[in-house]
Write a structure and sequence with these properties.
alpha/beta, globular, 10 helices, three-stranded antiparallel sheet, 13 strands
């Protein structure tokens, strides 16, 4: 078994801004595992919020032993971007070696398309209204907030897209007081859910707080070990492959979270169709699917995922799985 890691850059259609900063390209690591005549592919997006860089994640991957399987990988690497790319490459490799699709190997039903949110990056109210109007045909718009001027932006988006379902991602940018003050306005403007309103290390204030709009854990939820810390704070968990460390743990987290009464959102970092492909399987029957990464790119991979009015479709075997 031979493993190869490549750094790749995908330029974005336009500058993408959240409360933590802006980016003009998606920097990813692509993993290829070759075994015999088959090869499997995976992609991850190292995330600075979790102390990851391209170099550090690459070093983790290149430090793996010469041969291992998916079960061993869960112990060899922690949850995170490095394990994600390798885990997904192993799933793809196994599917190609077996001549089957990944969902068959995983015992899942054949997936179908899922309506996905489309993210509007942070900008002035005027800019965000214009962007919302340009994408008002999309069923779900996700708004990046987390600043002192959030209400004018939210009002502007609702005015620009009066019929779209709106979800808000505060990216840990609010305090408990700010969230409590904004909550009635979120209801008034028809916001469907709020992602991570408070910092992950300071979300105890959510316990006992009225949540008229469902609150989703993102930075507070990585894998199954996160679940005990979420009780009484959140209504949903946002499962991302780069947080769970791959599809193997993501499927287990989805089952465990639902078993504890949480609804599920499936999200992504900004990456190519190769990064999204495994997540489409995970997103089946999720309350919210947020797999719009390829829609933000100026150029995607060959055999890219197909997006249309029905949503994001499962990958072709030539891409993954």
């Amino acid at each position: 078994m031979r493993l190869f890691v490549t750094e790749e850059l995908f330029p974005l259609r336009e500058v993408f801004t959240i409360s933590r900063g802006s980016k003009t390209q998606a920097a990813v690591l692509t993993v290829c595992i070759k075994d015999g005549g088959a090869q499997g592919w995976g992609e991850c997006v190292p995330y600075a919020r979790y102390g990851e860089t391209l170099a550090s994640v690459r070093a983790e991957i290149e430090g793996l032993p010469g041969r291992f399987d998916r079960a061993a990988l869960q112990q060899l690497l922690p949850a995170g971007a490095a394990r994600n790319a390798v885990d997904c490459a192993l799933w793809d490799l196994a599917a190609k070696q077996a001549g089957k699709r990944v969902w068959d190997l995983a015992g899942l039903a054949k997936p179908g398309p899922e309506i996905t949110a489309y993210t509007l990056s942070l900008g002035s109210p005027e800019e965000m209204r214009a962007k919302a109007a340009a994408h008002a045909h999309r069923p779900i718009l996700k708004i990046k907030l987390g600043t002192p001027d959030d209400m004018p932006r939210l009002e502007a988006v609702r005015a620009g897209a009066p019929k779209s379902r709106i979800i808000v991602d505060a990216n840990e940018g609010w305090s408990a007081a700010i969230y409590a003050d904004l909550a009635p306005h979120l209801v008034r403007l028809g916001v469907a859910l709020v992602e991570q309103p408070l910092p992950a290390g300071d979300d105890e204030a959510l316990i006992g707080m009225a949540r008229p709009v469902p609150v989703c854990a993102d930075e507070s939820c990585h894998d199954r070990t996160s679940l005990p810390r979420l009780k009484g704070k959140y209504d949903l968990v946002n499962i991302k492959l780069d947080k769970t460390g791959g599809l193997t743990e993501a499927l287990a987290l989805r089952n465990a979270a639902r078993g504890e009464g949480y609804r599920v959102m499936v999200g992504c970092m900004v990456g190519s169709s190769l990064a999204m492909a495994p997540a489409v399987l995970l997103a089946q029957d999720a309350m919210v699917t947020d797999l719009d990464g390829p829609l933000l790119l100026a150029k995607d991979r060959t055999s890219a995922l197909h997006y249309d009015a029905a949503g994001v479709h499962p990958p072709e075997a030539t891409l993954w799985g």
